[in-house]
Amino acid sequence: MVDSPNILNSQIAKAVGAYSNAAKMKNEGLDTPYLPGEGANMYKPEFSDLVKAGLQRGKAAEYTGESQSTLALANETELHELVTAVTNAELTLQTVVAVRDRMINAYQDIVKMPI
Known about the structure:
By secondary structure, the chain is an all-alpha fold. The protein has one domain (5-112). The chain is built from three helices and no strands. The protein has helices at residues 5-25, 47-73, 79-112. Helix 2 runs antiparallel to helix 3. The radius of gyration is 20 Å and the shape is elongated.
């Protein structure tokens, strides 16, 4: 079965919108974005700022998944929007867990180093 041009255009528009939203979220959580080439005035994010921004994006993805689930229960959203939001939340959680595990392993390696 071939999708009609209107459905295909709608899917392309949604994909472009999702990409735009992802690009906007890239610097979310930082007061001033990192701007290379501005000399002494450029913002150099601390590691804790980067972790905080990542966790805030993770929370936002989780909240989006929950809100889409609530809307689905009320039959006010499309199924593909629900699946996309829940999948995004799941991938975000898996990423946070993987980063946490790597940080714990790095800490354990540092503790095991001889002084």
